[in-house]
Sequence to fold (454 residues):
Amino acid sequence: MENKKEKKRTRRGKIRVFSFLGAVIIALGAFGVSESAKRKSYERLISISQQRALSELGTYLDNIELSLKKGKYAASAPMISNLASTLWRDSTGAKTSLSQLGAGETPLANTYKFLSQVGEFTMALNRKVADGGRITEEEKKQLESFQNYAQGLCEQLHYMELMVENGNLDFERIESTLSQTADKEDAPANFIDTMNNAEQALTDYPTLLYDGPFADNLDQKESCLLKEHAEISKDEAKAKAAGFADVDINTLAEVDDEEGKMPCYIFGGKDFTISVTKNGGLLNYMLGNAYAGEAKMDEKEAAAKAKEYLKKHGFENMKESYYSTADGICTINFAYTENEIIYYPDLIKVSVALDTGRVVSVDARGYIMNHHKRSIDQAPLSINDCAAKLATGLQILKTSQAVIPKDNGDERFTYEFHCKDAAGQEVLIYIDPKNGDEAEILLLMYADGGILTK
Fold:
């Protein structure tokens, strides 16, 4: 009897155990279904959020393109101020939308740089006009270039929006396809690859604005150099302009003067515009629009021609650094050098036609705005002390002393280290000898068109 009762209790215990296990399995299954549903719901929310960010990015870029189109026709300070504020707001919003799309994983430096420079350039124009200056033809051309780039990006973004609507662009595949090539013909494109295609619209953008390191913001200061010179007449300036352009004075036409912090007389020639400072009659810039034929000289010969031109017109001790070549025109960057110290703020860019060796364009605004007598204090750290503070794995190719601009308009004495890492990437590292800290890092980019920094 006791044996039967014991067996019954054992059987009941087993039933309870199996019942409990069954309940656990059911609960786990329900939990798994719930978590799967939550995950799918979360993925849908991410996709919706990214679609919204893509739509907002397209709207911001449309607004940027429209404002840039209007900017070509704006002349009054209130209108330029309004457009500048709008562009600053829209470019900031566009960068935020771009980051929400997961584009932070991709090397979209040109797009980010474009969006940043749109706002900064137009705000600089705003300050210039507010101070009584006028927008030059060169600046109008820059606005037009911005507008063309914005238009290219807009077309890419609207195409991507259409792909999303048609199911051909899958945001959920972004992370999973970063490390692999999507080679299935019927697979939806992932956003990263598509955005990189849009990036190709800006492949030459660094050449547009950054054809040399330390392109200083020239609208935030006044020239010490011009204060040393008296004002000259327009006739005197015209004679100097003819000399700078190497043309007959009678071929020059007078154009409206340029005011602001660097007042200039403007003259027009057959295929160029030239600006001469009212104080001292210095060459501010010469912008040529001539086309070059088949190249008959290389970049070194062009640099020699440019250096000879600068010396002839009073710009002494100029050292060439980086260059870029496009459409048969080589543009060389020169910086003032004294006592083996390179003064990068004192920048002059000279463009030489490779078929004739003729100087077709000059931009001396950086030099005129920044050049002055300096006094460099004795540095507490030697160049060897600072070399020891470089990151490990770098091979030093060359060392120099250099003065670079700071964000606030001041200058900073540094040691320049031209280095190369194990992968062959060349980099310029600037170390402050006062504290041994890195003041700036620039990557060197070698291409068929020249040497650029980033």
